[in-house]
Design goal:
The structure holds 2 protein chains of 2 kinds. Helices cover 32% and strands 31% of the residues of chain A. Chain A has 5 helices and 14 strands. A 6-stranded antiparallel beta barrel of chain A has the order 3-4-7-6-5-14. The longest helix of chain A is centred in the N-terminal third of the chain and has 29 residues. In chain B, helix 4 packs antiparallel against helix 5 and helix 5 crosses helix 6. The chains are: A alpha+beta, B mainly alpha.
Chain lengths: 278, 174
């Protein structure tokens, strides 16, 4: 108490000065119209900017929950996409009273392990057998395809990345509606893959979008793969295009696993073809 | 008691000159002198800091009431009241009084100090009042010339008032 009194005694003139100066400013602001307008405009702008900063600060810490909410919402929306449904050809027969039959389902997952600098790269996701993940399922991120499930445990799955020497994807050049050739990772650059086996007479050009083909057994049609950045002729009759991947492999976090409900049926026919060719 | 009467008379003189003459000068010319600084700057140097703050604020607020300036002079006077005691080192005024120094303590420190002291506080007071009134608009075209002219005119008025009032007090003393 004594020290407080001592403080007040020492700084009485400063305390008085501050209090009386505030009083003077209150008088100025209240009795001068121009000063009043200016003061309230300035203070409104000041407090508005503070509120803006505080909201931005709060929303930063809510990013995680907003993100997972968006993933859930995206999953629901993705289930409604036209590509997820098999169109029952109604000019031949009707099996049931619905026109569309669902073909693809998606399971949201998070990447918990990822490599991009090895000759053969893999990802680990936090969904496994218990979530319905099976070997051979396609995995993609919101930006583009990522890989194919290689192995599954109860709670995790190992995904063979597109950045793997053995990973092959069936592509389609969107602008030409051309489903030809195959996508492979050849150079050890995590941003680029190569599209080979395209007829030299096709008009493949820089800037064209490469998406998944309708013949792909792992992915639905039209999922982004990348963009053509360079085209060269090889062996005299084929084109080889360098494709910049859409997905950023070094920043993968949220991914979706594709469950093809027709896979078993399609595999049956694939095996038939293989047997016939052996 | 005699000192109180002397400063009361100076205060009345300042308000009178301000209201009757200087307000009219302000209406016709660009500059706006404030003779109240004569009272504030010639207050005894023995005032302690909190007394100085309180008295200067009271004078400022009273002037605001008369001039309808609502807080502007109170704010400017408060600054003078706060900083003036730091500027006035009592050792400067300890020398024995000679002539008019008996009633004008400021002359004891010499003319150099006196003009520096008067100029700094006049310039600051005029600047602060003008700034609060105009908020710095038209700085080079109006603010700056008004500030300089008003300060010079105030300084001249203060020196004339000193001649007029303190010499009178001196004659009565002798």
């Amino acid at each position: 108490m004594g020290s407080v009194l001592q403080f007040i005694k020492t700084y009485l003139h400063l305390i008085l000065f501050v209090v009386l100066q505030i009083l003077s400013f209150i008088l100025i602001v209240n009795f001068h119209v121009y000063h009043k307008t200016l003061f309230f405009n300035t203070s409104n702008a000041f407090f508005a900017s503070i509120t803006e900063y505080s909201n931005a600060y709060k929303s930063y810490f809510q990013l995680k929950s907003s993100n997972s909410q968006l993933v859930k919402e995206n999953l629901v929306l993705r289930k409604l996409l036209k590509e997820n449904y098999y169109i029952q050809p109604n000019d031949t027969f009707f099996v049931s009273d619905t026109l569309f039959k669902q073909r693809y389902k998606y399971i949201a997952a998070q990447v918990v392990g990822n490599t991009t600098d090895n000759p053969n790269n893999y990802l680990t996701i936090n969904r496994g057998k218990e979530s319905g993940i099976q070997i051979g399922m396609g995995v993609f991120s919101p930006l583009g395809i990522v890989g194919i499930v290689e192995d599954v445990s109860d709670n995790f799955a190992l995904v063979m990345s597109v950045l793997h020497s053995k990973a092959v994807v069936s592509p389609k050049i969107q602008e030409l509606n051309l489903s030809q050739g195959k996508i492979k990772w050849e150079e050890r650059n995590p941003d680029y893959v190569f599209l080979s086996g395209i007829n030299r007479y096709e008009k493949v050009a820089k800037g064209q979008k490469v998406v998944t083909s309708p013949y792909s057994t792992n992915f639905p049609e039209n999922l982004p793969i990348g963009t053509v950045v360079d085209v060269k002729e090889v062996d005299g009759s084929f084109l080889r295009a360098k494709v910049k991947l859409s997905a950023n492999f070094s920043q993968l976090r949220e991914v979706y696993v594709v469950k093809d409900l027709f896979k078993q049926e399609l595999n049956y026919f694939d095996n038939k073809i293989k047997e016939d060719n052996q | 008691m005699r000192e109180l009467l002397k400063y009361s008379l100076i205060l009345v003189y300042c308000f009178f000159v301000q209201l009757v003459f200087l307000e009219n000068v302000h209406s016709f010319f660009w500059f706006q002198p404030f003779i109240i600084l004569f009272f504030l700057l010639y207050m005894p140097y023995t005032l302690n800091k909190w007394q100085s703050v309180l008295i200067f604020f009271s004078v400022g607020i009273f002037l605001d009431t008369l001039l309808n300036s609502h807080g502007i002079h109170a704010s400017a006077s408060l600054f003078i009241g706060l900083f003036r005691p730091y500027f006035l080192n009592p050792s400067l005024f300890n020398a024995p009084a000679r002539g008019d120094e008996k009633s004008i303590w400021l002359n004891k420190a010499g003319n150099k100090f006196k003009f520096a002291y008067l100029s700094i506080f006049i310039l600051f007071y005029q600047f602060w009042v003008l700034l609060l009134e105009t908020l710095g608009k038209n700085f080079f075209s109006i603010f700056l010339p008004t500030w300089i002219l008003s300060s010079v005119f105030t300084l001249v008025l203060i020196l004339l008032s000193e001649e007029l009032l303190f010499r009178t007090f001196n004659r009565k003393d002798s």
